[in-house]
């Protein structure tokens, strides 16, 4: 951006839903994504749920000529699923893993195994690399039930950590672009917290021109891969994939155009993914005087948002404390049973009891059961102890934020 | 610092070794630490290994009048052990947990349970909060054997993540102060990497005046709580606790004085901890022209350091891959055994085998054993898969850093 004061930046964001052996028509779709990206020549591509490194390598091989720079963020058992392709050099990267991410025993949801994170590529743009952009792709914990959302406190902790991470790292850049599947509706407390606390602006709300699904929805009943029953309460679909942005200093950012796909990939009869792709054209312009850092929401409104988030985290904290208590009690009971059995066995050995009081088989089965329960309950107790610690930590940080907001003149 | 261009800052750093039920004379020592801090009136106190929140609360109650601002960083099962007391307001905090931190099954070392992290308090100093300081207290994975240091790759990953974290967040501040037990000798590759990549300077090397243990050692045979046998190869002791600093912009920092305790607390016959306390007096001065960001080591030397670190991480990666493979093989074998037993049991039920081929007791014991091994080996396999992912990620980041260094004009 040195020299030329304006940069028009075209961004592509997609949750690719590329789970090996599980996602339908995965290979075909990944190839289609690669072809489209190659043809369209975006400046920056932020992808989520590319769970297999092989898919990333295939995309990289296909896109090497038009996106010379790329990065895959590794984390968790399976990976973070996040990757970025860029026409501009990636100067540096950093990965921040959220401290809470669901429960390891909820195998059917699987979020815990993914190591959900926010990746932080620092990208240099334009001649002489006059400006630097932070372009984190990110994904938050999925919402499996809107009515009884057991993961809301975890998602709020993630939204808060994401907001804090962006606040603390964004000074290293001139422009921050956040793209990803946030798994939150636009009016949810998590997204209001993230936007309010960081000052990030929503490309959909700010776009001069919009083309795509009604209300900007990115999970729609029209898409052949979505689960229709989950979308029953939302006949138009829901908007959970976002492109958010802000200028940090000396620059202004404006969203000229925002587009989404509408249930099929352009010119095809099937979609890229179960999510719609979001494509934005941003105009980044240098200005002479530095813009002051500001929050995204007026302060009284932000106080309300932080208070609401804190109340939700407190609800999660109480649930985690209950689970920690009951797993601890279970472990103690299993230990007592084991001790009792040991005492009975010793008694028999010492000849205190007449004859053989228990059949050997059920006696050992019971002992093994007790050991199993002890191990499992101890593991759960440790896990919920961590959960309690992290929820307490977040609650305290939110309290600090609230105090800082209220003390501001 | 608005108005007055110079700030003299007195910092106290200590690894408190305050483990409930395990550390000797803990309560007495915590009280002594509180009394000393109260009497001496430092500006900033960075403590590690305050494992019990009760100890933190006691310190907070004792120190509230002279250090009105404090924060305890929560993470892991037990906690991060990190806390900070400050005469200046703590404006914001962020916690970064290292992605690797030892092994959960190494119970005797226990690092895994601590959730080792770097805390990030942003502190505003002086009238009108003219400047902001990042003052992370931190602790890296312990070294249990210098000859056969199995944790070196983990500690290197942590040192790299710490360096990256500081690089990415330090632009939000004018001065960065890092205090803590880094568990590395001054010439170790991890500390050279951290200092080289961030530009942090070592208060011991830079101090105009020094007073304390020879060579600035902080783990010395003279201290009645240290394990003498571990220090046999180092008759003077070792230096593993540091205060590092740098000015980010518009400021200069100079270390006027550095002190360590020398085996006993001042005026007492026993020490604060098994580590010596490190106390620095820094002079922070505003200057008119902004200082450019620079690396701490000349670039050719830094290339060597990054190359060396990358080689060590690669060694760790191969070891982790071997462990992932052998735990996976063990899980498969246990599964095969279970399947075999199931087939045999079904065969017996179907009357294929004549009579009872196995005694019931040993048959079920074997089945339970196989289930136990299967669960354990699967858990290990998952754990080592994460380890492999994170080591690969760090290796790739180091490769990127190397390329960036080599491409620089």
Q: Which features would summarize this protein structure in a list?
A:
8 helices, alpha/beta, homodimer, globular, 2 domains, Deoxyribonuclease I, Chain A, seven-stranded mixed beta sheet, 22% strand, 409 residues
Brief summary of the model shown:
Chains A, B: It holds the Pfam family Exo_endo_phos. Chain A is α/β, with parallel strands linked by helices and 409 residues long. In chain A, 39% of the residues lie in helices and 22% in strands.
Task: Give a description of the structure.
Two copies of one chain form a homodimer. Chain A is an alpha/beta fold. Chain A folds into two domains: 6-297, Endonuclease/exonuclease/phosphatase (Deoxyribonuclease I, Chain A), CATH 3.60.10; 300-407. Helix content of chain A is 39%, strand content 22%. The first copy, chain A, has helices spanning 26-40, 53-63, 111-114, 152-169, 189-198, 203-206, 299-349, 360-407, and strands at 6-18, 44-50, 69-72, 83-86, 90-97, 117-125, 131-134, 137-139, 175-181, 201-202, 209-211, 241-247, 251-260, 278-286. In chain A, strands 3-4-2-1-14-13-11 form a seven-stranded mixed beta sheet. In chain A, strands 5, 6, 7, 8, 9, 10 and 12 form a seven-stranded mixed beta sheet that branches. In chain A, strand 1 (6-18), helix 1 and strand 2 (44-50) form a beta-alpha-beta unit. In chain A, helix 1 packs parallel to helix 2 and helix 4 (152-169) crosses helix 8 (360-407). The first copy, chain A, is globular and about 95 Å long. Chain A starts with 5 loop residues before the first strand and ends with a helix. The mean pLDDT of chain A is 85. The A-B interface holds A 73-77, 79, 90-97, 99, 113, 115, 120, 122, 164-165, 167-169, 171-172, 360-361, 364-365, 368, 372, 382, 385-386, 389-390, 392-393, 396-397, 400-401, 404 and B 73-77, 79, 90-97, 99, 113, 115, 120, 122, 164-165, 167-169, 171-172, 360-361, 364-365, 368, 371-372, 382, 385-386, 389-390, 392-393, 396-397, 400-401, 404. Chains A, B: It comes from Crotophaga sulcirostris (Groove-billed ani). Chains A, B: Belongs to the neutral sphingomyelinase family. Chains A, B: GO terms for molecular function: metal ion binding; sphingomyelin phosphodiesterase activity. Chains A, B: This is sphingomyelin phosphodiesterase. Chains A, B: Pathway: Lipid metabolism; sphingolipid metabolism; Sphingolipid metabolism.
